[in-house]
Amino acid sequence: MIVKATTPSTQLLARHYVKNQRPNKSIAFFADQQTAAYGKGGRPFYAPKNTGLYFSLVLPPRLSPQLANIGLFTTGVAVAIRRALHTFYPYHDFRLKWVNDLYIEQQKVAGILNELIFCPALDQSCCVLGIGINLTTTTFPTKLQSVARAIDPNGSVDRNRLAAALLDQLTYTIFHYQDGRLLTDYRAHSLLIGHCVRVVMNHTVILGTVITIDDHARLVIEDDQHRFHHLASGDVTKIIF
């Protein structure tokens, strides 16, 4: 484990490690603050000092998911994060927004980023898993104030204990995501199932009702022509409750 007081991005630290070392075991990079954190699609992630939990986990090739299984892995990771958070905040109803965000009601409290990074020394790819959680953040940039929130802005939590619980849950996921057992939990806490959504995928817009998350972790949408779409990727840009 490597811990920094501040860094542009734990994900960048982890990527640099993969490209310049020979990862043969998992290693986590934590930071108290990130000044240039990013999420899916390179979008900025607000990571101020002292109020969140931010880390990136490098998995060696033998533990890294194959590209074909990345959806199952990402949904499994979301379940792992939810389980750990629920232990510390049992009074919150954490919901999972396909495929890589955690919400309380209609506001984001945590994000997940999976990147497969090629390691020249091993001639294989390693998974770099980034996690960002808003624990007690009370002030957000203007453009985020309506869409993001803290889990408990007036509370406190032992971040070391929470980090340990997260890593324990992630370890379980690494060895069990392929058997699909985590999907039942994912579906049960989905933010989207039963709701109308707008999804953008490869410059195509799909409107419809989310029917389920299938056994390959794809989002299943029925449009107004009663056609079914099984989406392996895409951005849900609007949810109609």
TrEMBL record:
Matches recorded under Gene3D superfamilies: 2.30.30.100, Bira Bifunctional Protein, Domain 2 (3.30.930.10)
Keyword Ligase: yes
Highest taxon of source: Bacteria
Record's keyword terms, sorted: Ligase
PROSITE patterns given in the database record: BPL_LPL_CATALYTIC (PS51733)
InterPro entries associated with the record: aa-tRNA-synth_II/BPL/LPL, Biotin_CoA_COase_ligase, BPL_LPL_catalytic
Segments forming domain BPL/LPL catalytic: 1-178
An MF annotation (GO) of this entry: ligase activity
Keyword DNA damage listed: no
PANTHER family: BIOTIN PROTEIN LIGASE (PTHR12835), BIOTIN--PROTEIN LIGASE (PTHR12835:SF5)
UniProt cross-references to NCBIfam families, sorted A to Z: birA_ligase (TIGR00121)
Protein name: Biotin-[acetyl-CoA-carboxylase] ligase and biotin operon repressor
Organism in which the protein naturally occurs: Limosilactobacillus antri DSM 16041
Lineage: Bacteria, Bacillati, Bacillota, Bacilli, Lactobacillales
